[in-house]
Amino acid sequence: MPHEDWIEHRRAGDRERVGWIQPRGDGFVALDALGRQVSGVVDWLAAEEALDERGLHFLADLWQLDLPDGTRARVRIVEVTPERVVVKVDDFGAVEARTDTHVLAFPAPDTLRPFEGDPGTLDAGPTD
Is the N end or the C end of the chain the one with fewer CB atoms within 10 Å? Predict the structure, then answer.
């Protein structure tokens, strides 16, 4: 759930929520749709610009999720709300495939990161 002091920011035109702006000291910090910081402390207009530039396209990218058992899953984000983030194991575009889903807290935890492996392979990438 967003913090009480987070101010929703919507894109001009389609009014899609692209994140929040949080007051911080004498300035503001831009937080993306996953609730993650995308700017340092800046003025209001710079925070808005950071969110508009970031947009939502990054949500369609491949992600990786570190699972509690120490394995890593290659995932896609399927839902982002101020209450939760839902990801599913990548189905490689197979419409009929059934894959596991994982419901994560919002803001998205650090265990969800951009995919580090080769997107052309079935491997989830290095496990550190």
Answer: C
